[in-house]
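Re: the request from the purification team.
They wanted to know what the chain is likely to look like in 3D before they choose a buffer screen. I agreed to run a prediction and write the result into the notebook, where they can find it.
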Amino acid sequence: MGFTPYSGPASAFPPSSTWKTFDEIFNANKAEMLQTGDTESDVSHIHTAVLQAAKEIGVEERVIFCIIMQESTGNVGVGTTIDNGQKPTGGLMQAEESPAFPGQHNLPQSDITAMVMAGTKHFKGNLEQEGDADNAVTIYEALRLYNSGRIDKRNLSNPEGATASYVSDIANRLQGRTN
């Protein structure tokens, strides 16, 4: 089943009541993570790291995990990229502050946790910029900022120099859909 395209303001995106549980979303994506070269241990460490980051930083665990799937398909050995501000980004959440381990798998929990914590802290900054409310509207707007650094609140699919479908794709992932 393909992704449903969403666009417009955050209010046009699916409400959080339609989101699946963290375990449902995580389990639906396990096979895709393993296809990247991740080991069962890597996948288990991602699960642990997401729950830890959610608790310590105060970001919804489903959102953290869906950012991971959108940014790196859960590949702990994903390479670094250059963001639209011309800064290197790396790790599971492709964040500027994140350590990266290109081409490596079977990483220790500490390395995977460091990647997830860095990306979650970055996202938390975007969330705080939008008011830090724990609701779908604020989360969707913060996702646009996370991806592009800028936001057109009238249309979250306006890429602002980044990926047009980014917020829409994560909205689909939150509902348990996979590529």
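For the purification team: Residues 10-174 form a domain with the Lysozyme fold (CATH 1.10.530).
Please add any questions underneath this entry.
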